[in-house]
Design a protein that fits this description.
This protein is mostly helical. It folds into two domains: 67 residues, no CATH class; 260 residues, no CATH class. Strands 1-2 form a two-stranded antiparallel ribbon. A hairpin with a 2-residue loop joins strand 1 and strand 2. Helix 9 runs antiparallel to helix 10. The longest helix has 36 residues. Keywords: Membrane, Transmembrane, Transmembrane helix.
Length: 333
């Protein structure tokens, strides 16, 4: 029955992923057996099912019994997601910082000790701040009901008729999507804050490595606080998507807000083109890659100009597309 499926879904989505299938089957059999035992002539099956579900209690209460745990700063409903996201972020930060350390060592091996000290300092600054940011997000989710409006209604006036429907598969968010998003955004934060000078063209000359950066370090540094805040908001959005597991109107509106903020910031950068390295072509000439005024020079210059413009335009269009997809999926029945 649909009402039983709703109840089972409402219970197991609060449980660890690896336990969900077994408990879903067990709970479904339990409910069906209890209904069968109470079936009487002249009594509606729907009424019996409702009575059984009321006896079992609200989905949250039953999930607590299966877990054998109570409420904490970050309660059991979200602790598995909290723990998983921390592991993902720590892994992404470790890999990103390791890559930066490797690049720095290859380009300037004589200063490996300084690079190692910089790695340690970065670990002890980025890792605690990342964990702190994630904790704040989950505290908001847990205690302020940031994304759990329908759960609040279930706990205040629990009744089987209030159970939300099992989400349409097209509304559900695959775990791989927000996980990839979190990892990508962490890499961007590390790249912009720790190693933006290494985002560019890599050169090898007489067994020595060097780079021609895409960005103007001085101009980019002025934007860094805003960049980190915007990327933090986008990470928060991915966390909400991972925890909720489905598109809702509430999530779609949060997605709209974060994307509008990002769109405005990127548009501001687009107007102020000084964020790009103004000496990029001159440095290409000095490195001997092209000759000034040659056909190759003109071709690379055209690619550089079009590339810097269209990178931002495509990114902004992707933000608009993401908003549209979010609302489209949230409105699906």
């Amino acid at each position: 029955m649909e009402i039983i499926n709703r109840y089972v879904y409402a219970v197991v989505r609060r449980l660890p992923q690896k336990q969900r299938d077994d408990i879903a089957n067990e709970l479904r059999v339990l409910v069906e057996d209890m209904v069968e035992e109470r079936t009487q002539e002249g009594v509606s099956t729907d009424e019996i099912v409702e009575e059984v579900l009321m006896e079992l209690g609200s989905p949250k209460q039953l999930a607590d019994k299966y877990r054998g745990s109570k409420r904490y700063l970050i309660g059991p409903d979200y602790f598995e997601s909290y723990f998983s996201i921390n592991k993902i972020v720590l892994l992404a930060v470790s890999i990103a910082l390791g890559v930066v350390f490797a690049i720095e060592t290859i380009i300037n091996p004589l200063e490996i000790l300084d690079h190692f000290i910089g790695l340690i300092v970065s670990i002890f600054t980025i890792v605690p701040s990342s964990i702190g940011w994630i904790t704040i997000v989950f505290v908001l989710i847990e205690h302020l009901g940031v994304i759990k409006g329908e759960d609040v209604n279930l706990e205040k006036d629990w009744h089987p008729s209030n159970l939300p429907p099992v989400p349409n598969e097209k509304k559900q968010i695959k775990q791989s999507e927000p996980i990839f998003g979190i990892i990508f955004l962490i890499f961007l934060i590390v790249a912009f804050t720790v190693s933006n000078q290494y985002i560019g063209v890599y050169l090898v000359n007489d067994n020595e490595f060097s780079t021609i950066p895409f960005f103007h370090k001085g101009s980019l540094s002025a934007y860094l606080p805003i960049i980190v805040i915007v990327l933090g908001l986008l990470i928060m959005k991915e966390i909400f998507k991972l925890v909720l597991g489905r598109w809702t109107i509430k999530l779609a509106f949060y997605n709209l807000i974060t994307n509008v903020i990002t769109f405005a910031f990127v548009g501001w950068i687009m107007v102020n083109s000084s964020v790009w390295n103004p000496n990029f072509m001159d440095e290409m000439v000095q490195a001997g890659i092209v000759e000034s005024g040659s056909e190759g020079y003109q071709a690379i210059k055209l690619i550089w100009e079009i590339g810097t413009q269209w990178t931002i335009i495509i990114f902004m269009l992707s933000l608009l597309w993401d908003v549209g997809v979010g609302f489209f999926k949230a409105r699906k029945k």
